Amino acid sequence: MQTSAGRQDRHEYPAHWEADVVLRDGGTARIRPITVDDADRLVSFYEQVSDESKYYRFFAPYPRLSAKDVHRFTHHDFVDRVGLAATIGGEFIATVRYDRIGAGGTPASAPADEAEVAFLVQDAHQGRGVASALLEHIAAVARERGIRRFAAEVLPANTKMIKVFTDAGYTQKRSFEDGVVRLEFDLEPTDRSLAVQRAREQRAEARSVRRLLAPGSVAVVGVGRAPGGVGRGVLGNIRDAGFTGRLHAVNQAFPEDLKEVDGVPAHRSVRDIDGPVDLAVVAVPAERVPEVVTECGEHGVQGLVVLSAGYAESGPEGRERQRELVGHARTYGMRIIGPNAFGIINTSEEVRLNASLAPEMPRPGRIGLFAQSGAIGIALLSRLHRRGGGVTGVTGVSTFVSSGNRADVSGNDVIQYWYDDPDTDVVLMYLESIGNPRKFTRLARRTAAAKPLVVVQGAGSAPQGHAVRATRLPHATVSALLRQAGVIRVDTITELVDAGLLLARQPLPAGPRVAILGNSESLGLLTYDACLSEGLRPSRPLDLTTGATAEDFRRALARALADDWSDAVVVTAIPAIGEGSPADAELAEALRSAAAAASAKPVLVVHVELGGLAEALSAAASTAPSRPAGRPSAGGAPQASPGEAPALPDAPRGRSRLIPAYPAAERAVRALGEAVKYAQWRREAADPGRVPEYEDIDEKGAAELIGGLLARGQGLTLGTEETCELLGKYGIDVRRALPAGTADAAAEAAHALGYPVALKATAPHLRHRADLGGVRLDLADEEQLRRAYAELTELFGQPEQLRPVVQSMAPRGVDTVVRAVIDPAAGAVLSFGLAGAASQLLDDMAHRLVPVTDREATSLVRSIRTAPLLFGWRGSTPVDTPALEELLLRVSRLVDDHPEVVAVTLEPVVVAPHGVSVLGATLRLAPPPARDDLGPRTLPVY
């Protein structure tokens, strides 16, 4: 935003303080600094505030602002005096300001670190969480400007504002004097303030999605006058699904006397609709969308589903058009799904919304489905359509969102909605990219603790037009971090559906032990081998022979489920031929009966389709989407595709379990393996451990050292002495290495350190490359040292090229590497692996998000493939892994306490049978980012 050239500001306009936020009711507002250009807006805003609210703000009747007031409230230096406004439609709905004060409450400048803060919220917008959002943002601004504490004076009757302060979660002090409540609170985020902020974020973002998925009224804009076309098609889909709310058709080209289209009220403009419109589905050419957005915003529409194409997917001009679309919609407080979206579906009987290009409504169920791509969305709906059947019933969809370019509403928003949605038990997501891995991981961890979250993650970049920070982490590392957050990561949409159907229908297994039974020895052995490949512990398959009856299956399954040895059961079945062979419907009922009697263990069926098996299993029921009464499907029931499991009608929820069926043993076992790993994560997540406190950590001293070092420049790699000093503040000792520019200097260094010593070349091409011969160990005396020095210079060149150092010998052990890095998108990541070329070639590094708990440090050490070398592999002496875990925890604390530490590498770290020795360390500092996931709530920037 540009302001008048003549303003008297000490700092340039801080554009990075601008932010779009979601309010408590799901609407949006824009928060930005107040400037000298806002005088008229401020006066207009104040005129709309009630006398009571004005009295609460100024402690006296204050009907209007004087010219002096307007000047004071619009002229800020953005350091000692700051004002922020929340706006909708470009007009103020609330303001907040702080003024830096000294010890006596008088105006002051830095280094004074206290400020007085005051709010004013327009009465029509009170109760929407506007003040809470403004408090988060003004607190972040104050911290950036060196203010550590806020003070506020509030009249006792102003209970709403007192509640805003007391509910924020900051450490505070309260007093009462001269009829005024004085609140003082520290601005340093606390566990409680972060918990409050994230709970508010979840409720607001969930509500914003709920307004889109459960509208009371819908307008389809762009309905063609003749049959055909996207708008007319979507209108028909909504109508045919039996939408329970009010439906309107809109097209500016409709004749003035046209009253209905396909039985739906017709209008030339959204403005002509009598009554509120909650959701508008936009299907007009891209050049007409801005006009439609304006109409919708002025009519009070709450959200948009933009099906129109021609945006970021079409190139630079489209990207700019998309940015303008988002900004335009947010001006009116509306959220957008799309553009270029496939649409949304809600199968709830209370809603029955099919605002999508899918011609038929999916069968209701307990699976939430998200896809960025319309094509993938179609494939997923189709796959669930065919695969939704099981031995005892059908699993369907609760809600479906295909976000297209996801210019606004993203997977993060929808996860917030599904987290506490009572109609959704399992979440399936196809993500072409993850724009904000740090937030996604945080939300996924919380959601996965309540319900399974299965994700196919593409390797794509951020969506076109998104101004999100790009991650520097490899795709595999991001995937590993997602798994640690409880996400069930699969590679294909087939695996996505396979895992989702199992998790939606069956309990989680208590462990990896699998019982296998069936009427085919070969199929049982295939299942057994697949279990071993997935790391499960199968028992030998029980062969019931091809002559097994349905009762044989029932008894065998009942015994397997009752066996304390088994945690899950896989039933293999091939159709039998001949007299006495069980009918498929009879077999299905037998399996259902046995499973219902023992509901604590999952049951899966692997079947081979021959002859009439598919038809018998489906029992004449179809997987066709359900339709409102009186609207039979014109095309009849689609048949299950070859190789896919057919379906039976829904069994009453709570009376019987749905048993998923798979056409291949590998697919069933892979889904079971994911369920086993997820169940183990759930058990561990119940006790995540703690971040230990170490008495010898000097956090304040480290902060002062970092501040002094950063005063030299914007970013720097520390020298050896500075690195050792800073690491020492956190109890991390680096073994001294003295430079050895000549053989005599090497001898003097060895004498100072004491023999035995190591001689190492530290030039970049030789550093940490013992395999190239740049290291000489266990040099017991000066003669050996001088001989080694001569060998190195003869092999690799002059000392100035080698940069040799002398270091005292560390106890023998296993060489490892510890790294921490601040990734722009994922945040702080701690990594661990063994040193050496083999680990680098295999990419054998494990990763955890910072801060790391004691349990996570333990699992980090054990999660690399070469971990057995630490625990006595082939008779070697086990090393001191507790000391290694403590080192990892100290590094985690360093980067978590000081975001200015953007990179740390400890290499090598020798882990001996007793203790660890850090032989080399590098450390890089940079100013911390102004906003991150710990900052105030914001929507993505465009």
Task: Please describe what this structure looks like.
This protein is an alpha/beta fold. It contains 27 helices and 39 strands. Strands 1-2-3-4-5-6-8-7 form an eight-stranded mixed β-sheet, with helices on both faces. β11 (260-261) and β12 (264-267) form a beta hairpin. The radius of gyration is 33 Å and the shape is flat.
Helices, by number, come to 27
What is the mean predicted local confidence, pLDDT? Answer: 86
Largest sheet: 8 strands, mixed
Please count the beta strands (DSSP E, at least 2 residues each): 39
Beta-strand residue fraction:
15-25%
Shape summary? flat
| Rg, Å, rounded | 33 Å
Derived structural class:
alpha/beta
Report how far the terminal alpha carbons are from each other.
14 Å
Low-confidence blocks of residues: 1-9, 610-655
Strand order, main sheet: write it out. 1-2-3-4-5-6-8-7
Topology at a glance:
Elements: E1 19-22, E2 28-33, H1 39-47, H2 51-58, H3 67-74, E3 81-88, E4 91-101, E5 114-121, H4 130-144, E6 149-154, H5 159-166, E7 172-177, E8 180-186, H6 191-213, E9 217-221, H7 230-240, E10 246-250, E11 260-261, E12 264-267, E13 279-282, H8 289-299, E14 303-306, H9 316-331, E15 335-337, E16 343-346, E17 353-356, E18 364-371, H10 374-387, E19 397-402, H11 411-419, E20 426-431, H12 437-448, E21 453-457, H13 475-484, E22 488-490, H14 493-505, E23 513-518, H15 521-533, E24 537-538, E25 542-543, H16 550-562, E26 568-573, H17 584-597, E27 603-607, H18 613-618, E28 661-662, H19 665-685, H20 699-710, E29 716-717, H21 720-728, E30 737-739, H22 743-753, E31 757-761, E32 775-779, H23 782-796, H24 799-802, E33 804-808, E34 814-823, E35 827-834, H25 837-842, E36 845-849, H26 854-862, H27 881-897, E37 901-911, E38 916-918, E39 921-925
Parallel strand pairs: 5-6, 9-10, 9-13, 10-12, 13-14, 14-15, 18-19, 18-20, 20-21, 21-22, 23-24, 23-25, 23-26, 26-27, 27-28
Antiparallel strand pairs: 1-2, 2-3, 3-4, 4-5, 6-8, 7-8, 11-12, 16-17, 16-19, 29-39, 30-33, 31-32, 31-33, 34-35, 34-37, 35-36, 37-38, 37-39
Helix pairs in contact: 6-11, 8-9, 10-14, 11-12, 12-13, 14-19, 15-19, 16-17, 22-23, 26-27
